[in-house]
Amino acid sequence: MYCGRFRSSSLNYHCSKINYTTWIEAGNNANAAEAAHAYANRSGKQLKLLSAINKSQKEMISNKRVKIELETNNQHELKIEEQKIILQERAIAIREKEVELRRKEAEIEALELDNKKMRNELDHIV
């Protein structure tokens, strides 16, 4: 399979031209190389030039669609969050108006009670 000099350079760091860091990080198997081949050939191999270009353009269009869909979803989520905030602000404003209305009703009731008390006092005087 391998001829002599390639076999020794793939098994022994000192016979290889690969730097030490890469040699250590590569590990003791060929999984990384196999994965790289699989990734490189994921869209097909031995394609004609026009077929490869068309396939590449379709992938680019598909990726753009996914990106646009994600951006659209993000925009919708932001709009929903904005609407939630607006609704919360409206609810707070309504509660504040209700509190103010109750306060005014209490003032009116207090005035009516004072008025009734004064009438009773006048009725007793006359």
From TrEMBL:
Keywords: Coiled coil
Coiled-coil boundaries: 94-121
Domain of life: Eukaryota
Keyword Coiled coil applies: yes
Name this protein carries in UniProt: 14425_t:CDS:1
Naturally occurring in which organism (per UniProt): Gigaspora margarita
